[in-house]
């Protein structure tokens, strides 16, 4: 359709630990890589959408432009939990959809320390972590997993298999933080953080950045960029609808289901039409529940889906062939655009060893505590 | 500032969270809100209903003192100074509302913890004090039949 929006350029840096570099430097690197991917320059961009969480009030987008060219275009800085990068992408998509711009740059960046995130309390009174249960992210997502166990009997081993699969995938992705196999015994035998999540079932904190150039159809044709263009079939963003336990136990299900439903409807597609998925496996437990939330498993059948191998590369619906957050790494504000990069690369047929053969439709999903969920459906143009 | 204005308040006993109320006369309790329009009960005080959006008729209520274990995790790694392992539990309060807290008196092993086990919600003092020397009451879950 004439008002469709396309990804014409995208890339990500290899995720890792770069303490000697700055956030704007990391963002600038991915931005230039994405521009190079479509042979354009910063002078061609009409606006910039920058996602970053830890320096949310620090004008990261403007500081990125100081590294790559201060053209005076509007810069929007976005922070939206783990959906930060995807929200920046969506803001760019909306601006083009609305006809305000023809071509924009979206970039997500994060620099992180190691160790636990989250945790209750702080501020007033006495710390409540360990007194009123646990609010660390591994604990929050352990609750998510054990709710599935409660309902359907999902086992520790089934959760652990997610980690085995995604670490295996990452051996095929040179941009992942890790490229190492983690056999089931190793995953299950690793240090228990919050049962059932062992250390190898927790995403790894990394530094990273990813960027995408979004373009209107008219402009993409004008620039001769339709050949490798990927169409954004839908973009959905949700906040958590009311559910009764949400305050005590964060609910990532309802917010994801709402986003998935919205995205499928907008695209006029269903889960069966999707050839690959990059979903928010911030913990192994999360991937299991999102199989059902995104509609690729029936209620209660996520455990048997991982057992069947259907979500591994070569299976019916490969999930997280990039290695996922578990092994590629999870630089919070960059993750949402890194997912877009991964799916786009497959739809272009450029994913090398890990290519999902014949992929035509791909879905990306991120969900952050608070809560914010974004789902995008992409299609080879 | 005058000397009179600099008088420090005497340390007192406070609730670890704003919804743990300590009345001058009477037992400490957990406070909640009930929407008279849709019937939803939530932990803590609210002016409007998060479920149906009602702006009137949200009433302050005392939450129940018993409940059922909806969910749990066993925490083995935490921040320095937090003793592990412990059980982080999600409890549905009888009469409405859901809480997260520590489950005491149960072996921190998955096989020892049963979904839906009935628990008492007990309020007791904790050893921690804040910078001003105030003491705190917190709430805990304990299995009912032991
Ligand atoms: C699990 C966690 C507590 C471990 O943190 P840590 O103290 O930094 O880790 P440790 O020092 O104990 O161990 C690190 C080693 O374990 C291994 N390791 C840890 N996570 C791994 C993973 N996901 N995959 C493979 N190896 C991993 C590596 O060998 C690593 O060594 P390296 O840092 O030199 O590569 C931390 O990674 C974590 O909290 N992750 C979740 C992050 C999060 O909450 N994100 C937001 C989600 S919404
Ligand atoms: Zn109501």
Describe the structure.
- The complex is a heterodimer of chains A (381) and B (146).
- Helices cover 35% and strands 18% of the residues of chain A.
- With 381 residues, chain A is an alpha/beta fold.
- Chain A has a nine-stranded mixed sheet with strand order 3-2-4-7-1-8-11-10-9, with helices on both faces.
- The N and C termini of chain A lie close together (11 Å).
- The model of chain A has no long low-confidence stretch (mean pLDDT 97).
- Chain B folds into two domains: 20-63; 66-141.
- Chain B is 0% helix and 42% strand.
- A six-stranded mixed sheet of chain B has the order 1-10-9-6-7-8, with no helix packed on it.
- Chain B is mainly beta.
- The mean pLDDT of chain B is 94.
- At the A-B interface, α4 and β5 of A face β6, β7, β8 and β10 of B.
Spans of chain B of at least 5 consecutive residues whose pLDDT stays below 50 are none
User: What is the tally of beta strands of chain B?
Assistant: 10
Please trace the helix and strand order of chain B, writing H or E for each element: EEEEEEEEEE
The profile of the biggest β sheet of chain B is: 6 strands, mixed
Global geometry of chain B: globular
Number of helices of chain B: 0
Mean pLDDT of chain A: 97
How many domain regions of chain B?
2
Secondary-structure-derived class of chain A: alpha/beta
Low-confidence stretches of chain A: none
Secondary structural class of chain B = mainly beta
Amount of helix of chain A: 25-40%
